[in-house]
Amino acid sequence: MNKKRLSSFKTHKITIKKPFKFSYKEKIVCPYCQNTEDFYEVIENATFIVYYVQNEEGMLEPIEEDVEVLGPVRFFCGKCHADLTLLKNRITSGKE
């Protein structure tokens, strides 16, 4: 009978199925001013519905908000105010 000598080191087997996908977020960079931090969106033709409850002191307290967007949503650089809607849509949809 052959006895195998066991090592005092633990071994692990790692199996990776290819293609290996590594998900990461690509940062948006303004191509005009290189801004990577300040951005804003403009929502056109939107309806905001806010539901309130009035307390005993007569103050209105918002309890629920609904938003219905009927128009386009545009994305802008916060520094040079360039329209980056197409860039944002490309990055968030995952298409290059």
Tell me the layout of helices and strands:
Elements: E1 39-43, E2 46-54, E3 60-69, E4 73-77, H1 85-93
How would you describe what is shown here?
This protein has 96 residues and is mostly beta strands. The chain has a domain at 39-93. Helices cover 9% and strands 30% of the residues. It is built from one helix and four strands. It has one helix at residues 85-93, and strands at 39-43, 46-54, 60-69, 73-77. The strands form two sheets. Strands 1-4 form a two-stranded antiparallel sheet. The chain has a two-stranded antiparallel ribbon with strand order 2-3. A hairpin with a 5-residue loop joins strand 2 and strand 3.
Q: Quick recap of the structure?
A:
The chain is mainly β.
Features:
single chain; 96 residues; mainly beta; two-stranded antiparallel ribbon; 9% helix; elongated
Mean pLDDT value? 81
Strand arrangement across the biggest beta sheet: 1-4
- Proportion of beta-strand residues: 25-35%
Low-confidence stretches: none
Q: Which structural class do the helices and strands define?
A: mainly beta
Distance between the termini: 61 Å
Task: Give the number of DSSP strands.
Answer: 4
